Input
Amino acid sequence: MDMSDSVRPPLKPAVFHILLALAGQPRHGYAVMQTVRQASGGGVRLNTASFYRHLGRLIGAGLVAEAGTRPRDDDPRRGAYYRLTPAGRAALVAERERLADLLAIVDRLRPAVGRNRP
Amino acid sequence: MTAERHPALVRLLRALLRLYPRATRDRFGDGLVYGELRDFEAARHRTLPMRLLFVVRMATQHLWHGLAARLRRATPAPDRGVTGAGRRLRLSSLQDWRAAWRAARTAPLTSVLVIGSLALGIGATTAIFSVVQAVLLDPLPYGEPDRLVMVSSHAPSQGRPVGPVSTADFLDLRERASTFERLEAFQANIVPTTLTIDGEPVPAQRVVVTPGMFDLLGRTAAIGRVFDADADRDAIVISHGCWQRVFGGDPGVIGRRVGNGQLTLTVTGVMPPDFAFPYPSMLLGPVSFTANTDVDFWLPVEPATGTPRAARSLGVVGRLAGGVTPEQAHAEAMAVAAALERSHPDSNAGVGLTVSRLHDQAVGGSRPVLLLLFAGVVAVLLIGCANTAGLLLARGSARRHEMALRRALGATRGRLIRQVLHESVLLALVGAGLGAALALPATGLLVSMAPADVPRLDAVDIDAGVLTFAVLVAVLTGLATGLVPALAAARGAALTGLSSSDRTATSGPARQSARSVLVVVEVALVVVVVVATGLVVRSFFHVLRVDTGFRTDRLLTLQIAVPGDAARSPDGRRAFYARFFETLTAVPGVVRAGGTTRLPLGGADSTTEIAREGSGLPIAEWPVVDLRRALFDYFATMEMPILRGRGFDERDGPDDPPVVVINQTLSRLLYGGASPVGERVQLGPNAGIASAAIIGVVADIRHRDLETAPSPEVYIRAAQNPPVAPIIAIRTAGDPGTTAPAIRRALEQAFPDVPIGSLRAMQALRADAAAPRLFVTVLVSVFGSLGLTLAVAGVYGLTSLVAAARLRELAIRQALGAARPTVVWLVVGHSARVATLGLAIGLGIALLATPALGASLFGVRPADPATYALVAGVLLATTLIAAAVPAIRASRVDPVAILRRDG
Output
């Protein structure tokens, strides 16, 4: 049941950013959090507790999985590494398309909205 | 690396992890701990309150998410996922709140008691927090205040760990130091003076600053402009208060020409109302003798080169260069001071420079007092929480049937816990609402009662921050008080089931012991609060009984300034004083009059170095003592006894050899037990007299305030160096209040060009000197009585519960012939044991905790046996009475009726 819900957009901003952070390479939890905070420019406020709640759900929905491997001589206290599953990648692509469509609609209706003016 | 550095935080995190279901803990535990530690590390450079806030917020988040994860497992719902709208975790629904409301209405007495005690606790906590926030937590009203520091001199060998800086040292520091982006200075005292506006003199208070001070502080004027670094020789900037009071808020004030002494100045700017500089505790120098520390105007003066290094009177404010910590700046200032010690040993031996955060300097001594009050009010809140938990527990026992029924109908344990938590949070929120309503007038009362030396009280306000605090406290209180009853309810429902009835079931040993633990906690907390109250109250009475060393009744004080022409020469001042005291002593009802330069019980001091003549020591090693001048008949007016030799008289005229009178403490310091009369001393530059003969020893008085032990003092005769702005002391025959108007009339008639300030009775000044302590004492007493009341209610409730639970047993015992006292003791005994245990624990904690009261105590040791005995006695007596009432009531019930009831 969670499966069908979670692949259906719209994704929450925090969820979207977590998936995005994992798109390039597997990362450990704190690295994901830091990537999200930096990539969103502080726009997504993520505390450790809520991050792991999201992560738990994403794993439950099959979008994210533990990576199994980790860099050699890595600090074990960082916890597990996580990677994006094919379903997770699909969800990310779907969300990207949804956002692009949305943008196209907005631009078509009101060409001036959101454009930088000199 | 991080884990080793914060073992306590790791332990806390591991404990918080236990809130999560085991599967979550196993899977994410390491990552969670690692993430929080790294975030904490990132917050490391922040201030202590911010780091505490981080930990509190972190704990709250895990509490929330952990319990949420458990509930999610307990109550599976079909529509949960990671996506957005409508599928959020249901922690709460309207249905829950409705049920909570119904439950609250079915037990109105409990609800009222709970709401009442939480409203008092939350209201008091919120009121104190509003003051703590404004005074301690809010940043100073300057640009980038975190980078502002104060530089002071540091001369521990002269008994002055923090003092003003000399102009020459300031200029050297400015030139050599690289850790400061900028350094500016001000004369570290407020000078009462007059502004002449259209020929009318108006009293006004002045602070001299270097021209760049406002730029350094990062503030601009509300109207006009602040000083140009170089251009303004004759400009002043006035405060918002001065603009309103003196200029009536005239918008055309910029460019107005005003007189100040011999100067003619132009108003260039008006500062905004929230601007304040300096705060009273930044006034390290010889502070003005007025208790009023409002600044009316700032006068720019370039620091002069070539002034003596031994004359220290500047406060120095610095803005740290980017990335520099106060510690680094301190290290550099110390190095500069060490170099100055080597190059100028005469003036700088043993004198260092120290750098502290401007915020710490501004907050000054109010930090320990406010933290004490905050600790007290939080203790009261905790007592209220324990009490509330007890009451809810008692209500829970009456609802066992309801819970069992719900369980039988399919409610999960999680659902029941959620239900009870809703009830307690609802009560806490209502309590918080009432509390916030109470906090509003309470804060006003607090501010009006607070002594004048607490800075930034005008900024105290119930704002969003304070309200957030109140709501946060309410929710935490609700959860905390609800947790024990909620778990008890869930467990009880599972254990007893529907078949049980009052006949066979007592209210459950688990429930009783939970309640007993709560009462132990409650009594222990109350003991700590009441012991602290007792110590603070005793200190207050000690302060009231302090012997000032002079007679404070029938004594008036008055501050005057010698008018312009007369002030210019010593002879002019002498002539003025002769006429002034002649007029004054001729007023009917005036017995004697005299004057001095620093008001007794009125604040800090002017100082000078002093040494026995021929000691051969460099001036930097001379002791620094308080310097005072005695005008006219000062010692006799104050009724300060002359212990040896004589006081000043006509033999000590301006052309006679210079003489001094010293106080007992200085006599002991310089000469031990020997008589100093006839000995000669050398004085520092501030005294204006290089050397003098000692003619007498005068008794010590409390000068700075009631609590500070007398310091060494040297008096010089005003005739030999007459002051410009003295304090006049007037001894009256009768009530000083009735003589005051006659004095004022006579003086205004004889000296129309002298602004006559307020005539203040010394008794009122004495009361003012005790005011800071009165403030703390009243508040702590309120906390103590609140706590005691709550504890009595708690013990009463516990005994009622025990009595109700054992009613049937008691009835059987009575039916079998047990005497009533035996039965009463059966019930009281339990409560007495619980209360005694709480008492013992509380006394132990109090012994450990009361040394933290520190300077809040006066004349009482933290382990004062009398206070402890009294508190123990009072608590034991009140708890026994609170326990006896329900016990006796239970023993009066007809045993037959009880036994027949359940047949």
In short: The interface with chain A takes residues 3, 24, 27-36, 38-39, 57-58, 61-62, 64-66, 68-69, 78-84, 87 of chain B (CB under 8 Å).
